[in-house]
Amino acid sequence: MFERTRKQLTIFFGSILGVVIILITAFFYLILQETLRHNENQKLEDLKNKMAQQWEHRIEEQIKGKRPMEREAKNVEWIFLLSDELIVWVSPDGRTQISPSRYTEMSNQLLIWAQRNEKKSEHGERFYVEVGGERQTFVVSSQILNDAGGVYWMAIDISANAALLDTIRLILLISTFVLLSLAIWLAYFFAGKAMVPIKKSYYRQVEFTTNASHELRTPLSVIHSSVELLEECKDTLPEFEQHVLDSLQDEVKRMIRLVESLLTLARSDSKSSQMKLDNVDLVQVSHQMYQAIQPLALKKGVHLQLDLPDNDHGVNFIVGNVDQIKQLLYILLDNAIKYTSPGGKVTISYRASHRGRTTLQIADTGIGIPKDELARIFERFYRVDKARSRELGGAGLGLSIAADILNNHRAYIHVTSEEGNGSIFEIEFHA
Q1: Residue 214 counted as domain residue
Q2: Contact 350, 428 (CB under 8 A)
Q3: Which residues span the membrane (predicted)?
């Protein structure tokens, strides 16, 4: 129970820490990516400005007569370019000039676009070139020069930025994985720390319940013995005192059942005793409990039926504790009979499920359980109809004990019920 709660707390806190770590990592990566892209756009803008200034300078020289017009397209000076920048320029008269560059493949690609007059985004777009098994990354663009200066295609090598971004992405992924692992461990550690006071309070409560139950058993036994002695001379008592004696006997029996139930739950919670496991024959145990509880059914006027299988094929054998299985059957049958009106029917049957497991079914034609109450019927001290449960001597602990027995046997229970049309309890055991 505590380990399951600790795991749930670990998942909860680990998820919160994980989301925070992922958000911080993603935010850092996006900021870095945006910074690098801004840097690339700035370099592209700078190159556009340098090309525009170079063209304006040549126009001014032409106006002053320092540079003849016919030589304009032949002697472009590319000294303003950086080593990672390259340009292909097509002048208005159709002449093409290529800046000297070490990026041969990219220069050829710019030339192809220029020959096709294939325009590129003015804001830049990425283009990849494979050279010697390595990928080079460029940001490319095309621009029209003012004052009839023609069109030029430009490219800037941003492979270093791309490699940096890839490296940082890998580092962030590894760091995120490490931090998530650390966050899960910390969540598990602190969940354990948070469980310490809860465990102490829980075990104190279990110890108190166990001690109180033991202490109450002796005086209740004395009271019960005294009431039984008074029963022997009941006929000599006045009618009112006989009625008081009957009420007292009923309350003492109810208190004894309540104390025994509390003691059973306390023992189950404390795990103080190891459960002895044997091969249990469900047919034999069902028949024994059928015979044991038959008088109660007859007294209530309820028909109790045991449906035996045509052949067992070994499906009726399970590994479990025979005493606990008997107690489980008694609780379910006792509840079924209590909440079934006279003339009703309670049926015990079992079969092999489609998964090869043994399924025990107890069905009744009783008052049923409201759908909104089904999820809570196994809670301790919970009663669907509190007034009727108290009238019938119930304390709301029977199904809680049944749930503990099912948990000890790693069995599953499925309850279907319709108010006014009875209930079906299906228990699936591990074979």
Answers
A1: no
A2: no
A3: 12-32, 170-191
Quote the percentage of the chain above a pLDDT of 70.
82
Q: State mean pLDDT over 56-62.
A: 77
CA-CA distance, 328 to 140, in Å (whole number)? 78
Q: How far is CA 87 from CA 137, 310, 337, in A?
A: 16, 92, 95
- Whether residue 375 is predicted with pLDDT greater than 50 in this model: the reply is yes
Does residue 254 fall inside a structural domain? no
3-state secondary structure of 96: strand
Q: How far apart are CA 318 and CA 285, in angstroms?
A: 11
pLDDT at 262: 67
- C-alpha separations of 21 from 25, 27, 61 in Å: 6, 10, 60
Q: Which residues span the domain enclosing 334?
A: 275-429
The dihedral sign for the CA sequence 318, 322, 327, 333: positive
Is 367 contained in some domain? yes
CATH number for 61: 3.30.450
Phi and psi dihedrals of 132, rounded to 5?
A: 60, 35
Task: Give residue 247's identity as a one-letter amino acid code.
Answer: S
CATH of the domain at 294: 3.30.565.10
Residue 284 belongs to some domain of the structure = yes
**Cβ count near 257 (within 10 Å):** 15
C-alpha 296 chain-centroid distance: 46
pLDDT for 216: 66
Structural contact between residues 356 and 316, judged by C-beta atoms closer than 8 angstroms: no
Q: What is the pLDDT of residue 71?
A: 42
**Residue 72 banded pLDDT, cuts 50, 70, 90:** very low
Secondary element (H or E) of residue 223: helix 159-232
Domain termination site, one of 167, 198, 233: 167
Report how far residue 144's alpha carbon sits from residue 401's, in angstroms, rounded to the nearest whole number. 86
pLDDT tens per residue, range 321-368: 888 888 889 889 988 998 898 999 999 987 766 666 778 889 999 888
Number of H helices, E strands in the chain: 8, 12
* Residues 198-214 pLDDT 10s: 777 766 766 666 666 66
| pTM recorded for the entire structure | 0.52
Going by C-alpha positions, the residue among 137, 143, 123, 127 that lies closest to residue 43 is 123
7: Cα within 13 Å, side-chain hemisphere: 4
- Which positions ≥6 away from 38 have C-beta within 8 Å? none
CA proximity to 411, closest of 422, 420, 402 = 402
